[in-house]
Amino acid sequence: MPGSEGVSLERLLARLEELESRVAVLEVRNVELERENAELRGENTELKRRLAQNSRNSSKPPSADGLEQSPPPRSLRRKTGRKPGKQPGAQGFSLALVEDPDEIIDHTPGCCRGCGTGLGTAVAVGVVRRQVTDIAPAVATVTEHRLHKRRCGCGQVTTAEAPAGIAAPASYGPNLRTWVVYALVFQHIPVARVVELVTDLSGARPSTGWVCQVLRDTAAALVQVEKLIRTLLTAAHILHVDETGAKVTGARWWLHVAATETLTSYHLGRSRGRAAIDEFGVLDGFAGTLVHDAWASYNGYAGCEHALCGAHIARELVAASETHPGQRWPAQALDALFGLNAAAHDAASSTGR
């Protein structure tokens, strides 16, 4: 048919142009899909990393580990070749005989083990010492203070002054108060259990309200001491800070801590961030080296040097080794970190620090 070849060629060229246009669109779309795919893969990796986080490989506290996520109770440290227990040269704490015991009880043999003869007048040839270290029974005792009254010739009646700290008709003494504060503050024993402890060990039966009041009275008496401690912390060369969540009457609060080798101060705040840290009042004016876990609120203090906590660095390295199991550098860095830490402790021990 005349002209059919020309028509077919025109159609083919048009079709080719159409296909080339579609290919160009698809290529653009393919680039977009590859980019989206890469972003999704990255998000997927990050979500898996977050789901795998626990107290061993992140800053999460052990209390945040679910039952199914609880990490095995093993140390992050590598084997050092040392035997378990006390190391050569380390300070020992074995129980030894003392030269001035509080009480001496003599035990003499009644008769000879050989022939049965009585030894009442026999010659003493030595003594074997056996010492028992124990505590006296902690039994509550009641001391009555009688404030006598005297009437003067002028008719005035004068009553003797009570010793300091004795104002109520019946009260608990300073030793029992010391027990309570020590158990609450240093041993972190709950109030109700402190009451049980005191009752079981001493026979005294204080109330939970009295225990709480003792803690308030002690805190009020130490206000100036706490101010001095915080001032000394601000002036320290190296300061360690951290925070952890705490429940207060069912609400979420945050317990902030600042510490050196010899000083520690706590602050209970409603938030974890800068507002509560400012309320703490330790970092304002601090110009030394601040050791922390890279929490953003700490990084905002520009007047000091910053150092990362070694424990958190170790956790990040553990996380890196779990995220990239084929890489050797996380384990190598972890070994180097523990080696530096051991060297620092050995150097401190050799100098008696």
Automatic annotation (TrEMBL):
> Where do the DUF6444 domain residues begin and end?
17-92
Region called Disordered, residue ranges: 38-92
Read off the InterPro entries from this record. Answer: DUF6444 (IPR045618), Transposase-related (IPR052344), Transposase_IS66_central (IPR004291), Znf_dom_IS66 (IPR024474)
Q: Which stretches are tagged as biased composition: Polar residues? A: 52-61
Membrane-spanning ranges = none
* Ranges for domain Transposase IS66 central: 171-344
According to the entry, every stretch annotated as the Transposase IS66 zinc-finger binding domain falls at 110-154
Which residues lie in Basic residues bias regions?
75-85
Under the heading Pfam families, the entry gives: DDE_Tnp_IS66, DUF6444, zf-IS66
Q: What residue spans carry the Basic and acidic residues bias annotation?
A: 38-49
UniProt cross-references to NCBIfam families, sorted A to Z: transpos_IS66
Entry-linked PANTHER family: BLL1576 PROTEIN
Name of protein: Transposase
Origin species: Amycolatopsis jiangsuensis
